[in-house]
Amino acid sequence: MLIIGSGPIVIGQAAEFDYAGTQACKAMREEGIYSILVNSNPATIMTDEDIADVVYIEPLTVDVLERIIAAERPDSLLPTLGGQTGLNLAVDLAEAGILERYNVRLLGTPLESIRLAEDRAEFRALLDEIGEPSPQSEIVEDWDQAVAARDRIGLPLVVRPAYTLGGTGGGIAFTEEEYERIVRGGLAASPITQVLVERCLLGWKELEYEVMRDGADTCVTICNMENLDPMGVHTGDSIVVAPSQTLSDRDYQMLRTSALKIIRALGIEGGCNVQFALAPRPDITAWPGEETAEALEYHVIEVNPRVSRSSALASKATGYPIARVAAKIAAGKRLDEITNSVTGRTTAAFEPALDYCVVKIPRWPFDKFAFGDRTLGTQMKATGEVMAIDRTFEAALGKAVRSLEMGGRSILWEDPEWVEDFPDDLPATDERLWGLLAALRRDIDPIDLARRTGIDPWFLERLGRIVALERRLLSEDLTPDLLREAKRAGFGDAIIGTLADRLPDQVRALREEWDLRPVYKMVDTCAAEFDAVTPYFYSTYEQENDAVPEPDRERMLVIGSGPIRIGQGIEFDYCSVQAAHALQAAGVQSILANSNPETVSTDFDTSDRLYFEPLDEEAVRDLLENEAGGGEAPPSIVQFGGQTAVNLARPLQLAALPIAGSSADAIDLAEDRGRFEALISGLGIPQPPGVAVRTLDEALPTAETIGYPVLVRPSYVLGGRAMEVVQDEGELARYFAAALQERSGPILIDKYLEGLEVEVDAVCDGEAVLIPGIMEHVERAGVHSGDSMAVYPPQSLSDEQREAIVDYTTRMALALGVRGLMNVQYVVAPEAAPQGPGVFVIEVNPRSSRTVPFISKVTGVPMVPLAVNVMLGRSLAEQGYESGLVPDRALVAVKAPVFSMSKLVGVDTFLGPEMKSTGEVMGVDHDLDAAMRKAALAADLAIAPGTPFLLSLADRTKSEAVPLIHALHEAGCDLFATEGTAAMIRDDLGLPVQFVTKLLSRGRPNVVDVINDGSVGAVINTLEGGRPSHLRDGFHIRRSATEMRIPCFTSLDTARASIQALATPGSYSVRPIPDYRNGRTG
Amino acid sequence: MSEPRPAARLVLADGRVFEGEGFGAPVAATGEVVFNTSMTGYQEALTDPSYGGQILTMTYPLQGNYGVNAGDDESARIQVRGFVVRELTDLPSHWQSLGRLDEYLARAGVPAIAGIDTRALTRHLRSHGVVMGTITRDESPTEALARLHSEPMYGTEDYVAEVSTPVPYEFGEGADNGDGPRPHIVVVDLGVKRNIMRHLRRRGCRVTAVPSTASAEDVLAHGPDGVLLSPGPGDPMLLDHVVEASRGLVGRTPLMGICLGHQVLGRLFGASTYKLKFGHRGANHPVIDKPTGRVYITSQNHGYAVDGDGLDAAVEVDQVHLNDGTVEGLRHRELPLFTIQYHSEASPGPHDTEFLFDRFLESVRDEGSR
Hints:
The complex is a heterodimer.
Chain A: E1 2-4, H1 16-31, E2 36-39, E3 54-57, H2 62-72, E4 76-78, H3 83-95, H4 98-101, E5 105-106, H5 111-118, H6 120-129, E6 137-140, H7 143-153, E7 157-161, E8 171-173, H8 176-189, E9 195-199, E10 205-213, E11 219-227, E12 240-242, H9 249-266, E13 270-278, E14 298-304, H10 309-318, H11 322-330, E15 357-363, E16 384-390, H12 393-403, H13 432-441, H14 446-453, H15 457-475, H16 480-488, H17 493-500, H18 504-513, E17 519-522, E18 536-540, E19 555-559, H19 570-585, E20 589-594, E21 609-612, H20 617-628, E22 636-637, H21 642-646, H22 649-654, E23 659-660, H23 664-671, H24 673-683, E24 690-693, H25 696-706, E25 710-714, E26 724-726, H26 729-742, E27 747-751, E28 756-764, E29 769-780, E30 790-792, H27 799-816, E31 820-828, E32 839-845, H28 852-859, H29 863-871, E33 884-885, E34 892-898, E35 919-925, H30 928-938, E36 949-952, H31 955-970, E37 975-977, H32 979-988, E38 994-995, H33 1007-1012, E39 1018-1021, H34 1028-1043, E40 1048-1049, H35 1052-1063, H36 1073-1077
Parallel strand pairs in A: 1-2, 1-4, 2-3, 4-5, 18-21, 19-20, 19-22, 20-21, 22-23, 29-33, 36-37, 36-39, 37-38, 39-40
Antiparallel strand pairs in A: 6-9, 7-8, 7-9, 10-11, 10-13, 11-12, 12-15, 13-14, 15-16, 17-18, 24-27, 25-26, 25-27, 28-29, 28-31, 29-30, 30-34, 31-32, 34-35
Helix pairs in contact in A: 1-11, 13-15, 14-15, 15-16, 17-18, 19-29, 23-24, 25-26, 30-35, 31-32, 31-35
Chain B: E1 7-12, E2 17-24, E3 29-36, H1 42-46, E4 54-58, E5 62-63, E6 82-84, E7 87-88, H2 101-107, E8 111-114, H3 118-128, E9 131-136, H4 141-150, H5 159-163, E10 169-171, E11 184-189, H6 194-202, E12 206-211, H7 216-221, E13 226-229, H8 240-247, E14 255-258, H9 260-268, E15 272-289, E16 294-307, E17 315-321, E18 327-332, E19 337-340, H10 355-369
Parallel strand pairs in B: 3-4, 4-6, 5-7, 6-8, 11-12, 11-13, 13-14, 14-19
Antiparallel strand pairs in B: 1-2, 1-9, 2-8, 3-9, 10-12, 15-16, 15-17, 17-18, 18-19
Helix pairs in contact in B: 8-9
């Protein structure tokens, strides 16, 4: 059976598909079915070679898939686990006749149903046929028709012009005047003078049902979920609760029955997600639905005929493994033949009963993109999500907010601007939850808030309870009863401390004194009706503890990495999962803590015990104390969960809780600028000159001494947050003004060396230091390593430089006292060093890194298991590895970043020191060109020969771009260029070029026109520096390119690499990953 | 914020005590403590006569979210003796809501308790079996326990007599889709839920409910086209008179038995019944229909089950519970007679097996045209 993965992590398609694919592969193994997996994303557990029988890490294209099918000759294809990517690819394969040619059966969802769910009109027709309601809509081509449509459907109406980009010219009309204006505007904007007029369900309740069906037509509902945010906000951007809270049994069953009818009509064998809009309470809405004596009006909004983000959430919320069961159904099993692995004694043919409340909150990237448009609508913007479980909504919500890891944004956070100017209408943004609480603190009536937002009053009343408790904590003495009530309502110690004027540790001490400790309840699919065997726990303040520790076994806690965000992605979940597996393989009980429902790590059978908890000090200490059971707490592994876990090292150490691997002090030594500098200058290892400062007064002379350009950043960083290359004093002052507002703590100022960036991951056992491989970045230093293309093995390092890198890495690992993993970033700038190899250390992280999955896969060195075994006391030598660099494998692998910029309006896409990518792909082959070509294909950066280019280059990069421009010309690419660049191409190079102005107000076609009308198919736009005016100029170019989804290169290095791949057209290989490593060709 | 609620406790006959906050009526109450795993439908459950003599806890922690409404009562009154929840919503929200759950219980004179670790309670019942318990506000645990031991045990009481209608009546509620001939269905009320009768009316039937004490002649005197033996509370071994009355109906009219009605008919065909450790109560019970291999998700509420071993060869067990293999349905090999242990009328619960009412009425029509 062939299983298609979902490719790189982008907004809307994230780790949930790694979880689904991994479960499916495991299920196939249980069924004795030979599985073939293909995915382009190396940072996934599913692409580990022990998950499927054969693994291809290749671009997800029809060509590649056909070659895999031809080589492997699978009997069947399971496309429903790889998100929309997998589904679309399956449709393409079918339409290209490939499935038929090779006699491959499509499993899960019939092709017809995949198409049906995508096609609005056909889907509506199906719903009509089975008597299920969908929002009324009509196609309108002139004003008379529009009037008739309005009279038939009734206001408010959504107007969607046909074939306009990003819905330009559409909108929601509430009044007749608005309707006329929008319809007339929309007809004018539409190239075919056509608009769709649709019943507006804005503000209606939004509900989702996860349903399953098997070959015997048995149908079950796994979970229903209610969006706190009503219709109008993408469900991926909504706060979601499970099960529904405001539906009576009558409502619940009405929608359940409808969902089952739909899955039957679509003939799906597997899982399916159905979204509904249900009329809101008539007293809070201006446009109620129709009600009869028995039921309220509802509409079917959307169907996903596959495993989805919602089904991952539903699986974690209920304990019912939807993807696993879906895969087994696809393999021909009936639901009643599949064991419920949670209880071990019942079957998958039942409906989970929850005895808790689940809250999911999305994690948005606006902490990184301060200028992005924060409005939430139909385009999803969140990069990840957190889930929390508790016995009440308030408590689950409180824990979910803690799980977001939003720095200073606790549940008490309010925008400082709200003091003066409170946004009464509370628009849907990432800040609305905090806005609602702030409104309740300002005594705005919940019903009134419900009218403004469409949020059901039930939720607002519960938020009101939180606010009421806040007031009591502010005004009353902190008694045992009050503290108990606060803990039962989900208040963290830190929040209680803030309100009751105590330190978090004092609150913790009071809890100990008054014996207020959380107990842990099990997620068991059956509300305790049966004895369950799968230890999946959440904390709550009640009486009985289900999570009885097993202190007689050797145990370790793996701390996960929390929600997926830019800078801390699926790579860290990969490491956490591998760590749990490695512990199990070593006979050690693995305990895992994480807050992210999308991931493999929170699959209940990844570890021996799973705690679904916020990853903050309070929660981790609490669960460790529970595991200690009055005795010794198990050691914690903090080096696999990204910065989230590493940040817990110090608090755990202060609480006298043991840490496995590198000590808290070793971590501090690497992260504390002063201590680290002293250490490495003692070792005689060069690093770019730099100093930590606290104020602008200190910074100005420092930068002067070091010499501009300088790299500035806060000392503890995540994904290059707030890191910038600064060219002069003015920019430095601006940076400081912004940085100091956000947080305190020192700012690092380093000399910016524009050299080759190199990265290594290493494992150290205290005596030996193993370096599996060196990675060279395509982009020069200054582009965040997470946004750079990385090549293994390095292509341009001298032997001397390689030796220096190995030598420095080895000595630093030993000197820091690393036990486990370490990542080092170097810049190679020979011109900056009068003598020696010219290798400088930029950064050392005593933890796993983003590149660990990539380097593990291409070299075959299992870094995480090696590190775990080191922590368990087994040396590298005992594990069969010796110190030093592992010889280069006979392959070339390119890791390319993938961005989600088209989904984030208003965000500038240029590459810089601040990380912006959401995911990655890998291109691997026997030579660099082929690997690069595949990486470009997989990252959607592939450029067809003859693609016209638009060039707008900064002066400082013009001369460097000359060879590139020649190369483009020779490759038959027409050139378009802005003022200065065009002059250079025409006058200096004597090549043909078409001039387009970048000043939008001055003449046409301008840069935006040539992008939008398709005259150009790729853009190269380099930036002058940090100067705002230039940024604004290029901003239109970059955003237009992003919205047209054409490649836009802001680094000449990336452009050069991609064009090189284009310039040498040739074939690439398609092989299972070990074949490349073993140098198997032909 | 509402007023703080008074302290209250739930004391179990085995000595286990759960401390919480009282709501509903300020009285003490005793009953067999049982749990239900349905996540919605508290109002329907509270008014289900099958809960007569029992204290009900819902495993889902949030209760009262959508208030109480006019259409969800399954009988004329709250039937449970007491109600146990983790968290009570003071401010319900629903388009049909007419009031709060706590006031609804208070008006009916039924005590309830909130703030209970209902998962711990459920685990206790699961491992020790259902047990008598009492909700109290003023007594100490020892006092409450002493009182509890002096009160009658659940299994010794005939709750059917308590919940059944004293006199026959025609059920007139709900949609009536009667065009043409209206089959007359007599429902033997052992503790019937209104939704059973609504389903029959929706399918065009005239529905008459008769007391549980009705003899076969009493039932036949109504001229039924079919007879339905309803669900109800308590031990079917106490219902010899209903078994006997049913004997006079078999072969003379199509019969359908639901829940207690199923158990009664099971006894009629030679089976014995036994008490389950903690029963089946919830809306997620999988039942496999042996002839088709299809699984239905059913709503259930029973503490006793039919032992299939002693069954007459004339009837077969055609449906079983997927989890524990207990008998879920019987079918007479020749006569128009079938029974189900679960609740095809749902309310609360999934609507997957509503078609059984159609099946029953088909047999009624077939019989009529014969």
